[in-house]
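Notes on consecutive records. When two proteins share a document, each keeps its own sequence and its own token line. Never mix them. Below: protein one.
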Amino acid sequence: MAQENLPLLGRNYAEFQALVATEHYPRFTAKQLCDWLYKKHVATFDAMTNLSKTLRADLNENYALGRSAPLEVRTSRDGTRKYLFAANEGRTVETAMIPDADRRTLCVSSQVGCRMHCQFCATGQQPWGGNLSAAQILNQILSVDECDELSNLVFMGMGEPLDNTDELLRTLQVLTTEWGLAMSPRRITVSTVGVRKGLERFLKESEAHLAVSLHTPFEDERRELMPASGGLSLKDLFALLRTVNWRGQRKLSFEYVVLAGVNDSARHVEELIRILRPIPCLVNLISYHPHDGAEFSRPKDMVLVRMRDRLNNSGVHTTIRASRGMDIDAACGLLSTTYAQRS
């Protein structure tokens, strides 16, 4: 007999086939469960109307579906929405939906807190609360109001995705396979500071886009701003990135949070040009978003424009990312759950 309350969300087709065989359900039940969970996005077993009442009752008794509604939803003046979800041991995580013309991008969390402790990120300043399971990650995607309208997914929410590699890759499998949500991996971007083993596996086992959190081109400064840095030096990081063909459909980008007077000098820009020009990539300049516990300052707009123009003129494709959802603390680097304190 199955262990009580094990979630079905996050399982792959082979695991559903094994479950069906173990429980002596009809063989076609495996496909039905995949369809109901990943195609039709049902939130209860009772909604699986082509399963017998006896089978639904058995599933209800022995398994959890793995779905839960958000605890709270906040909407920004610019249309960005931030969802709060229950996580491990009473903790919570946040997910942000960013609308832009005909695009709906969901910024997904992979951990409760983050062990990378980047000095400019609010998530890294909160207590560590563990990895999210594939079920918890997928629930964020399936439980937002815009689920059926989502055009892109970015794993840039709370946590370091490649510090939770097993559950991330399981999630990506469900998202991109035909029996799952059947999304193109070209609609998914995974962000990382550069966790060696996780990055090596991700590059081999997934076709999703990669975004590297860079933030300075100098090793000593990066270690100070990003104390963990995934245990991978910039030299080794770039050596690993050069093993992949970035001239095809799969894309590489670098995230660069600009901190006034820290990483925005001409010296920084020229070094970025030196190390990035040989690699087909995009640089996203992001203005620092102030929060309690960090003493950095936002740069002036003209500093960002100057950096962007110099990089572009030197052959490094660069954009300035708009700050979205700042009035609800949903902008880049601001996700840090305060639900318990508010309650």
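Protein two starts on the next line and is unrelated to protein one.
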Amino acid sequence: MEHETQNKIALVGKTIEDFKIIVSELGMPGFTAKQISEWLYKKRVFSIDGMTNISAKNRDLLSEKYEIGRTLPVQTVESEDGTKKYLFKTEGGHFVESVYIPDEDRATLCVSSQVGCKMDCMFCMTGKQGFIAQLTTTEILNQILSIPEAETLTNIVFMGMGEPFDNTLPMLRSLEILTADYGYAWSPRRITVSSIGLIPGMKVFLEKSNCHLAISLHSPFTDERLKLMPIEKAYPIAKVLEELRKHDFSHQRRVSFEYILFDGVNDTMRHAVELVKILRGIDCRVNLIRFHAIPGVDLKSSSVEKMTFFRDYLTSNGVTSTIRRSRGEDILAACGMLSTLEKEKSEKQTEA
């Protein structure tokens, strides 16, 4: 069931097939389905009354049961580097964050798929928050539709709060709407979905979507990765790579690997050599990321010198590697820093 308020059902998050069923049930002409989708996803209307090429009678019929389903962010925080963090209130009174990252000719939105996360990676504040709720397709798309910069976005990355492949169906529906002609009509090459490697959801994604994939790797050694990422026990990185080797990433679709460098933990020559070894045969790139310190975690970021060496070693040995520039650290918007735990606690105290 999609996001509802006051017993009305949200239209944002529905597909063209859904709209066809809705207009049929309401006795409207069949072409009204396309009109609704155009108003929602291309003209981005805020109210059903704004759908002016649909008759007033039919708008009233639609309004009896349905609403648009868009909500504006309840808070905006801007970094000194221009990054903006948006806070959205979700169904059930929870909160989720998304991050807008402007960069010369690009404008990227980092989108969340869950409130909190079950995966409990050592280095991630969202994981420390724990899992609270799944986001509906409505709530995923609302992050994209309802920020002031919505019209200027060039890229979307599912790298915010949550594990996308732990909420596969709503995430896939959002990708369909983003890339379909009746929806946003974006190229799949403008969208990247990041995962720690939940194989069942990943397999469905690879079959159903042509969007880019990013896998959080962080150590090439099973025992060491397990200490950082509990998911290694259920879905070892070796199995993830085995699945990826079944797919062609040399043309339209790209696979990349996220690798946070921790000082003295995963940044040695031994790690670089093994990383080259396990990625051999996969047409990919590795994004090296500086660790952003979070409370209660005894990890430190590698030095610039170590990161540069690591990048150069990988690239010179056939694995294209880049160092990702950190953005929004001063507003807790950088990689691994998203959390609404304190906001959740505050709301509960207020309610009490």
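For the record: The longest strand covers residues 95-103.
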